Automatic annotation (TrEMBL):
<keyword id="KW-0501">Molybdenum cofactor biosynthesis</keyword>
<comment type="similarity">
    <text>Belongs to the MoeA family.</text>
</comment>
<dbReference type="InterPro" id="IPR001453">
    <property type="entry name" value="MoaB/Mog_dom"/>
</dbReference>
<comment type="pathway">
    <text>Cofactor biosynthesis; molybdopterin biosynthesis.</text>
</comment>
<dbReference type="InterPro" id="IPR005110">
    <property type="entry name" value="MoeA_linker/N"/>
</dbReference>
<dbReference type="InterPro" id="IPR038987">
    <property type="entry name" value="MoeA-like"/>
</dbReference>
<comment type="function">
    <text>Catalyzes the insertion of molybdate into adenylated molybdopterin with the concomitant release of AMP.</text>
</comment>
<dbReference type="InterPro" id="IPR036688">
    <property type="entry name" value="MoeA_C_domain_IV_sf"/>
</dbReference>
<feature type="domain" description="MoaB/Mog">
    <location>
        <begin position="172"/>
        <end position="309"/>
    </location>
</feature>
<dbReference type="Pfam" id="PF00994">
    <property type="entry name" value="MoCF_biosynth"/>
</dbReference>
<dbReference type="InterPro" id="IPR036135">
    <property type="entry name" value="MoeA_linker/N_sf"/>
</dbReference>
<dbReference type="InterPro" id="IPR036425">
    <property type="entry name" value="MoaB/Mog-like_dom_sf"/>
</dbReference>
<dbReference type="Pfam" id="PF03453">
    <property type="entry name" value="MoeA_N"/>
</dbReference>
<keyword id="KW-0500">Molybdenum</keyword>
<keyword id="KW-0479">Metal-binding</keyword>
<keyword id="KW-0460">Magnesium</keyword>
<protein>
    <recommendedName>
        <fullName>Molybdopterin molybdenumtransferase</fullName>
        <ecNumber>2.10.1.1</ecNumber>
    </recommendedName>
</protein>
Length: 384
């Protein structure tokens, strides 16, 4: 390890990552991606004066003072505008229909009283004016926004069948360690089953990352080196877990230095996850310490924002309150696992130690507790 960096110093290095590029995909496939070109209105929104209720439409000033209103006919959604309305009469009109130019008011059926509008209606009511939401040509969604269900709806409504989005980062995972056997193997008493690879794969799958390589390396530099070569050739981002600390079998830094030169950093003033190392690449490489809670915390705090940046979006963590204010560590930032609390605040779910991933079950993310001085609000990094 080198001189330990503060979190801010480490962030300055990962901030050098740039978006990978853009591509055009079918609209349905754009869900969860970042928009690379703005979506603009091809027509005013709404495109015509839209009836907002099922009921009647009329010109308020021509309505007779008493008696039931005479209906000129039915005007439904999807009908072209009707001819002129005879003075004093009303159309029966359906939600989504064009309100004819000679009408200025819609009264819903439920507000009719003995065949005429109850006295309480207001002239102009229940008409959604053409262009009142957006003018033709207006930008509806800016580039850089995440595409969720609402953005899909907006894109569809302006006639897009495809969207220009930022490329996804292709991710490779290489877990390490002679002691870690596959989940379907029976471990010897001195062995454990691998859990870091499955956890990373689950995190990446949740956020929609394509996983182009996933393997496990023994603590053997020759074999591990060949696996690293294969992984590096296939990905935009390589995630390694384990083998990056000071142990006599921690070969990862040396193997990566032979291939990529010195890391941008190796060692961060954070707990858990001090031995985190980063090469800016390409491909970008994060070597995460092997302890499962360290993998969880460093992936969430460092790798997720880096993936967002490569995919065209800057992640800014929301500020949150904790159910109980945590006591900061004197010098290190604390990447504290948390669960959602009953009242919208977050509950600390600290592990016994960074190998104890059982006690962080049910957690939903980490909060960053800065060193030294107590704080009221904290940066929150949710799991995907
Ligand atoms: P290392 O960073 O390689 O020294 O590993 C630190 C700790 O994390 C050791 O106790 C390892 O057994 C554990 N560990 C490493 N890789 C894995 C893995 N894939 N799944 C679960 N635990 C692991
Ligand atoms: Mg190891």
């Amino acid at each position: 390890m080198d001189r330990l960096l503060t979190l801010a110093e480490a962030d300055a290095h990962t901030a050098s990552l740039r978006p990978l590029g853009t591509e055009t995909v079918a609209l349905a496939a754009a869900l969860g991606r970042t928009l690379a070109a703005p979506i603009s209105a091809d027509r005013p929104f709404p495109p015509y004066r839209r009836a907002m209720m099922d009921g009647i439409a009329f010109a308020a000033d021509t309505l007779p003072a008493t008696g039931p209103v005479l209906f000129a006919g039915l005007h439904a959604a999807g009908d072209p505008p009707p001819g002129a309305l005879p003075p004093g009469q009303a159309w029966e009109i359906m939600t989504g229909a064009v309100v004819p130019d000679d009408c200025d008011t819609v009264v819903p059926y439920e507000d009719l009283d003995s065949g005429r509008p109850a006295a309480s209606f207001k002239k102009g009511q229940f008409i959604h004016d053409a262009g009142s939401d957006a003018d033709a040509g207006a930008m509806l969604v800016a580039a850089g926004n995440s595409i969720g269900p609402v953005e899909i709806a907006i894109a569809a409504s302006v006639g897009l069948t495809e969207a220009e989005v930022f490329r996804r980062a292709k991710v490779a995972i290489l877990s390490t360690g002679d002691e870690a056997v596959p989940p379907d193997a029976t471990p010897q008493p001195w062995e454990i089953r691998r859990s870091n690879g499955p956890m990373l794969e689950a995190m990446l799958t949740r956020r929609g990352s394509p996983i182009v390589f996933h393997d496990h390396a023994p603590d053997d530099p020759a074999i591990c080196g060949r696996q690293l070569d294969e992984a590096l050739a296939s990905c935009d981002v390589l995630l390694i877990c384990g083998g990056i600390s000071k142990g006599k079998k921690d070969f990862i830094r040396g193997l990566l230095e032979e291939r990529l030169g010195k890391p941008a950093f190796h060692g961060v003033e954070q707990r858990p996850g001090k031995p985190l190392a980063f090469w800016s690449g390409p491909p970008a490489v994060f070597a995460l310490p092997g302890n499962p809670v360290s993998v969880l915390a460093t992936f969430t705090r460092h790798v997720l924002p880096a993936l967002s940046r490569l995919e065209g979006r800057e992640f800014s963590p929301p500020r949150v309150r904790m159910n109980e204010v945590p006591t900061p560590l004197p010098k290190f930032s604390w990447l504290l696992t948390v669960a959602t609390g009953p009242d919208g605040t977050l509950l600390a779910r600290p592990p016994g130690n960074s190998g104890d991933f059982i006690s962080v079950a049910g957690s939903c993310g980490i909060v960053e507790v800065p060193p030294g001085r107590p704080a009221d609000t904290f940066d929150f990094h949710p799991f995907p």
